[in-house]
């Protein structure tokens, strides 16, 4: 399984997303990472080019709801049906809102690497 | 060494070996023999190489400065807060900027959508600085600008603000973070390729050395490097390599080392093993003094000072049992004071998951005040000086930091090491190992993986986003673009382009451009057109 991890928006905090990238790689997943400050359009393009099976968005600045809506719009415009995930600094109260927007799963702040790995293994 | 030297290693005493986070093994007992060869035996605070502190009297004369961080969204709110602080006797002001400003984007840029005013003050044009500093006497305050990628524009705006108001810029005091090299390792608000980014920093150093001798144009940040996964040795080593890169740049412009080295300052982290951090600062201070004097030939003692803010420690705080963070922060404050810091700041205990309340911010302040007023921390300089363990570890840290700097040399210097992602790669691997260590319990964290208890799940919380305020900012920007002299703006932007193409110092043309209310986005775009943008090497 190939997973794209991405950093949308202007937030430059990438310690967490890189930790997760290491964790997923160690667990046997194929991981592609976009690097910082990519637009949602660019992220979706990278996902298509790399034929990934899932897209993860890492957001710590508080813009997760805005960026998730944008993600939903861009995927719909491209008629893409691909599981996508949100992690980073995500309040529990926003998990449901993100899932209503259309994310397959939102990982709240404090989620352990092994929990994310377990989730993907079951997918 | 005498042949009958008594040994006190873990093996000799039959106890388990202990290693610091930096990989240094700690003996169970240290004796006078541990420091037989140490230069520490002859060192006096306030004298080169300053291991024991940069001043002879340190806190006895004046305690460390307390400078807590705070950010406000709009220039008007910032101004209100500044006036409040000034009326309450504070003379050091700190400006945090929102992400679009830090990345050089205007408020009306589509990429800024949802980010305007979110994590700090928004700046589009000089007008925002004029609002933020209204009715404030720039001669009586020091302003700290927390900005890096677009720092040259922010510094230019501060200078333009002062010049337009008739101040003698030669008297301006203040600091800018302006450490772009660490942004490539952690924090991430880089814009231009690494070499061009460093050129811009050197432009600010050169300009300030010539025109604003009391201004500190750069604060080199080991802090963010450590928070990104570096160990304490690497934190110091990479920070020193970065400071040397700026120093080399300044020297290449013909500036004398003694005309700017004393204006360099540092920002370091304090979480982790208490003695390891103290040795890190003491050994680092000695090494930095030697580098500036022996390698660069500085004649002025002040040039050799490692002036620092040591504080924060966010990486050590936990969301679990958050009240424990009050205790952790008190230890961090102790580390910082025992290390001879000039300035201290602490995180609030609840900062790991929520917006600090007035109450939690007050506890941080009181933590430092209790140490100053009740614990006798100011009574004597470098109270750990002469401790067998601390002096031995200090010597070791000086040596290890120097070694780690050689590793960077082997990567063909810090600029290349950052551009190719060598440092990012090693640091992010360590961040992963540390996180795994915490998750598996190999790295012990109280309340997280030992001594845990059932507790109510605490939710993270953000400041609510104010779309209306963002709209107002965008409207204000539109009005400025309509009312300014657009011919002059075009001419100014063209001069920046010419200066950039001809590798001239950009400060004069950027100062001229901001005086005509050119926007931060317009100026940064001109530079992107000439320099291009950094292409991030992908490592994890």
**Terminal Cα span of chain B:** 46 Å
Structural class of chain B: alpha/beta
Number of domains of chain A: 1
Indicate the mean pLDDT of chain A: 96
CATH architecture descriptor name of the domain at 1-62 and 227-452 in chain B:
Alpha-Beta Barrel
Quaternary structure classification: heterodimer
By secondary-structure content and strand pairing, the structural class of chain A works out as alpha/beta
What's the level 1 CATH class of the domain at 1-62 and 227-452 in chain B? Alpha Beta
What spatial form of chain A do the alpha-carbon principal axes imply? Answer: globular
CATH architecture of chain A: 3-Layer(aba) Sandwich
Count every beta strand of chain A, where a strand is a DSSP E run of 2 or more residues.
Answer: 5
The rounded distance between the terminal residues' Cα atoms of chain A is 10 Å
Strand order of the largest sheet of chain B: 4-5-6-7
Number of helices of chain A: 5
Give Rg of chain A in angstroms.
Answer: 13 Å
Global mean pLDDT of chain B: 94
Low-confidence parts of chain A lasting 5 or more residues at pLDDT below 50?
A: none
How big is the Rg of chain B? Answer: 24 Å
The residue fraction in helices of chain B comes out at: 40-55%
Main pleated sheet of chain A? 5 strands, parallel
Defining traits:
heterodimer; A: alpha/beta; Rossmann fold; 5-stranded parallel β-sheet; 46% helix; globular; B: 540 residues; alpha/beta; TIM Barrel; 4-stranded parallel β-sheet; 6% strand
Q: What would you note in describing this structure?
A:
The complex is a heterodimer of chains A (123) and B (540). Chain A is an alpha/beta fold and 123 residues long. Chain A is built from five helices and five strands; from the N terminus they run βαβαβαβαβα. Chain A has a five-stranded parallel β-sheet with strand order 2-1-3-4-5, sandwiched between helices. The radius of gyration of chain A is 13 Å and the shape is globular. With 540 residues, chain B is of the alpha/beta class. Chain B has a domain of 288 residues: Alpha-Beta Barrel (TIM Barrel). In chain B, strand 5, helix 5 and strand 6 form a beta-alpha-beta unit. Chain B is globular. The model of chain B has no long low-confidence stretch (mean pLDDT 94). The chains are: A alpha/beta (123), B alpha/beta (540). At the A-B interface, helix 1 of A face helix 3 and helix 15 of B.
């Amino acid at each position: 399984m190939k997973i794209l991890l991405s950093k949308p928006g202007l937030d430059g905090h990438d310690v967490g997303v890189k930790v997760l990238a290491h964790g997923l790689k160690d667990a046997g997943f194929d991981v592609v990472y976009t690097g910082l400050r990519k637009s949602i359009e660019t992220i979706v393009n990278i996902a298509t080019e790399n034929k990934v099976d899932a897209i993860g968005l890492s957001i710590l600045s508080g813009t997760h709801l805005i960026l998730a809506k944008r993600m939903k719009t861009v995927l719909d415009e491209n008629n893409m049906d691909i599981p996508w995930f949100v992690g980073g600094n995500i309040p529990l109260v926003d998990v449901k809102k993100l899932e209503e927007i259309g994310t397959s799963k939102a990982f709240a702040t404090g989620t352990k690497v092994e929990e994310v790995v377990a989730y993907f293994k079951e997918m | 060494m005498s042949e009958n030297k008594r040994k006190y290693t873990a093996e000799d005493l039959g106890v388990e070996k202990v290693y610091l986070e930096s990989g240094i093994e700690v003996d169970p007992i240290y004796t006078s023999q541990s420091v037989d060869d140490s230069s520490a035996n002859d060192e006096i605070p306030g004298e080169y190489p300053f291991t024991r502190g940069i001043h002879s009297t340190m806190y006895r004369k004046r305690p460390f400065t307390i400078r807590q961080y705070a950010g406000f969204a709009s220039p008007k709110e910032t101004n209100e807060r500044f006036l409040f602080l000034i009326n309450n006797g504070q003379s050091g002001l700190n400006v945090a900027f929102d992400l679009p400003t830090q990345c050089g984007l205007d408020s009306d840029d589509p990429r800024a959508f949802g980010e305007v005013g979110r994590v700090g003050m928004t700046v589009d044009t000089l007008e925002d600085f004029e609002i933020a500093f209204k009715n404030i006497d720039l001669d009586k305050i020091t302003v700290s600008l927390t900005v890096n990628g677009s720092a040259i524009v922010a510094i230019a705006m501060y200078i333009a603000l002062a010049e337009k108001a008739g101040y003698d810029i030669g008297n301006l005091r203040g600091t800018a973070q302006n450490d772009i090299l660490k942004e490539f390792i952690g924090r991430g608000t880089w814009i231009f390729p690494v070499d061009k980014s460093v050129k811009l920093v050197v432009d600010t150093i050169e300009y300030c050395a010539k025109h604003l001798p009391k201004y500190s144009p750069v604060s080199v940040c080991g802090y963010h490097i450590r928070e990104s996964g570096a160990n304490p040795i690497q934190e110091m080593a990479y920070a020193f390599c970065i400071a040397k890169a700026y120093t080399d740049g300044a020297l290449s412009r013909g500036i004398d080392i003694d005309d700017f080295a004393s204006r360099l300052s540092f920002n370091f982290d304090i979480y982790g093993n208490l003695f390891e951090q103290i040795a890190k600062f003491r050994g680092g201070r000695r090494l930095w003094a030697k580098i500036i004097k022996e390698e660069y030939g500085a004649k002025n003692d002040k040039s050799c000072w490692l002036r620092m803010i040591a504080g924060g420690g966010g990486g050590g705080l936990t969301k679990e049992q958050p009240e424990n963070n009050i205790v952790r922060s008190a230890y961090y404050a102790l580390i910082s004071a025992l290390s001879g810091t000039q300035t201290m700041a602490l995180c609030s205990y609840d900062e790991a998951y929520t917006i600090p309340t007035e109450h939690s911010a007050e506890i941080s302040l009181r933590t430092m005040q209790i140490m100053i007023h009740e614990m006798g921390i100011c009574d004597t300089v470098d109270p750990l000086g002469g401790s067998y363990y601390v002096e031995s570890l200090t010597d070791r840290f000086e040596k290890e930091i120097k070694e780690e700097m050689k590793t960077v040399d082997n990567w063909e210097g810090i600029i290349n090491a950052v551009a190719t992602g060598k440092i990012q790669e090693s640091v992010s691997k360590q961040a992963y190992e540390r996180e795994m260590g915490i998750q598996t319990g190999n790295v012990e964290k109280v309340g997280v993986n030992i001594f845990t208890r059932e507790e109510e799940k605490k939710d993270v919380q953000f400041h609510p986003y104010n779309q209306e305020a963002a709209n107002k900012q965008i409207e204000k920007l539109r009005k400025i673009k309509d009312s300014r002299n657009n011919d002059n703006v075009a001419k100014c932007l063209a001069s920046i382009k010419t200066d950039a193409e001809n590798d001239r110092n950009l400060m004069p043309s950027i100062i001229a451009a901001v005086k005509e209310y050119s926007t931060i986005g317009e100026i940064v775009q001109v530079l992107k057109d000439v320099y291009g943008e950094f292409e991030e090497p992908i490592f994890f």
